[in-house]
Amino acid sequence: IKWTAMTLVITKARMYFRQLFTTVYELDTELVDLKKTFNGTAEELNDFYFEANKLAKQMGITTAEAIKLGSAWSRLGYSSNEIMKKMAEMSAMFAAISPDMNSEQAQNGLVSIMKAFDIDPENVLDGILSKVNIIGNTAATSNGAIVEMLEKSSSAMKEANNTLEQTIALETAAVEITQDASSVGNTFKTVSMRIRGYD
């Protein structure tokens, strides 16, 4: 029994240290990636690391994931410390309220929608998250499906002079019938492009 207990303790210790090494390696990798595009000082980078750790605890993700979100926004030009923290938080929050999206999908969706409809980082909470979440919770669809449709059609719909609200409403009405977000997004993209072609 003593040998069994000792073997168990040693095995658990090995697993713990292996996991610790993996975590440290992931954090280091993400921080190195972030440094490539980060505009701030070393002190601000250090501050972002601690903020990412807090965000990870709040949103139930790893610190490495939180840093990765910040890094993704930094690469897109949102490289000031405050905006990067805010956008990493918005991405994590969007994923947290959307069971069918992970943080990376939420981040990609936000990028598409913000770029297409010229939405400022300060307006993301009310301008995107709230609007998508209200429909996702009250219609026969989900946040993930709405984002999938918007990723495919946002630019074309904006070019056809549709607002984000109009686009969400039109596509939600269609997806409630078809239950196929990908097809609905592509259809609205094609239709809006053809309408503009006739104009």
Sum up the structure in keywords.
199 residues; mainly alpha
Explain what this protein looks like in three dimensions.
It is a single chain. The chain is mostly helical. Helix content is 82%, strand content 0%. The protein contains 9 helices and no strands. It has helices at 2-37, 42-59, 63-75, 81-96, 103-117, 124-138, 143-159, 164-178, 181-198. Helix 2 packs parallel to helix 4, helix 4 (81-96) packs across helix 5 (103-117) and helix 7 (143-159) runs parallel beside helix 9 (181-198). The radius of gyration is 21 Å and the shape is globular. The N and C termini lie far apart (83 Å). The mean pLDDT is 85.
